[in-house]
Amino acid sequence: MYDVCERNEWGDPFSYARSREIHMSITMQHVISTTYSGADAIDQQGEAEYKSTIDKTIKGTYNGISVQPTWEEQEVYLIEQKIGKYNNHYFARFDGSKIVELYCLTGDEVLGILLPKLKRQYERFQISKPKDPRLGATINKTEIYTYGKCLIGQ
């Protein structure tokens, strides 16, 4: 597997969840990104973000988001550079090596879900001043089922 990924410039399949990203890309016939930062793949509309889980319920976590000096700057960063720049966000739940659920949400749908959560966390962090001030939030099963387009599963 490592040799195949190296020949195709897909990166190390044993790094983080890279193997699941490769599996998702092949399943959806997307172009697999050759870098670890930025887009996970390229779909028919451009750069795409992938989230995967092996939990019993589907979800997608956005962690390690850099904090900007003001909420206004934070919002612009989230929309233009971090989350909103991807037209599509794909959420997969794996059972072993099999994708049992796969959903797609648009960048606008993801922002609609995450911005209020991240704003509340940003405001709390302004008061509590945690050691690691990076933001993070999760899109849960209900949100994925409500806003997402089912590609595999349910």
Question: Short summary of the structure?
Answer:
With 154 residues, the protein is an alpha+beta fold. It has helices spanning 2-7, 18-28, 71-82, 107-128, 141-147, and strands at 31-32, 41-43, 46-53, 60-65, 88-95, 98-106, 135-139, 149-152.
Account of the protein in words:
The protein is α+β, with helices and mostly antiparallel strands. The protein has a single domain (37-152), classed as PvuII Endonuclease, Chain A (3-Layer(aba) Sandwich). The protein has five helices and eight strands. The chain has helices at 2-7, 18-28, 71-82, 107-128, 141-147, and strands at 31-32, 41-43, 46-53, 60-65, 88-95, 98-106, 135-139, 149-152. The strands form two sheets. A six-stranded mixed beta sheet has the order 1-2-3-5-6-8, with helices on both faces. A two-stranded antiparallel sheet has the order 4-7. α3 packs antiparallel against α4 (107-128). The longest helix is centred in the last third of the chain and has 22 residues, at 107-128. The protein is globular. The mean pLDDT is 92.
